[in-house]
Amino acid sequence: MQVQSVLWKIQAPGSSKTSYILGSMHDFGKEWVGSYPKLDSVIKVSDVYLCENTSIANTGNTASAPASPIVTRLNAKAIFGKDYDKVNDYFIKNTGSGLTQNIDSDKDPVTVLNGMLLFLRNEWATGKGLKISFDGMDAALLANARSKKLPCISLDDAQITKGITSTPLHIKNSVAEIVDFVSELTNMSSPGHNEVHQDPYLKTQQLYNSGKFNFNFANDNDRGEKLERIKTRNTFWMKKIPGYLTNNRAFIVIGVAHLDGKSGLLMQLKKRGFKVTPIDLL
Which tens digits make up the pLDDT trace of 51-82? Predict the structure, then answer.
């Protein structure tokens, strides 16, 4: 099944209730959400809102209780190796705080790495004149759902999130992406510099803005580890999602990459007898 839209209608077998699932590009902002009134109309006809974010304040009673966090101790100089000085200098110059100060002493250094990536992605997008935001479409849709007094439920829990992001391969890939971002930001004004992130990001943005999306992992340099993370989370979510779809009119907002492919949520729902139909946002 190819993904032909970012918004899909879901009908459970033997149920008259209709639900919806939106594939999100997390760091798009409120402008995108506000440009499609159909999203607000979906929230109005829903009675529960499901998303992947573990940090939301759950207003429902069925969310998983946070599990004990997985503690991963990291040494900044060890994980950044020969790139330590370059990355450390960049963060001291632009944030006033160095790598060792943050990573070695923090109780949750994996979250620190994720925060560094968000900061760098925002710096890169700003330099390219792109509109992304820490307060992206997920936050905007969540705010809309809360304003309608919907129960807002997290599909993830602390254990599954930590288990995925704390793997050595994920940490290695995060460090490599941080190094790439720093190199690109440092040389952004230099003619002919290597733009690692621009073409894939802009292509993805253009596809998403069209309201149609076909995410192809064959074009993703990080496809092995990233695909395994997506499969793991999809499997975990599918233990929860069918129950909500059968008993509620749910609106599900998850990363768009979780929709596509044999292990994608659309195909898994279809195999379980759910009818999934693409919705034209326009």
Answer: 987 555 444 434 443 444 444 678 999 999 99
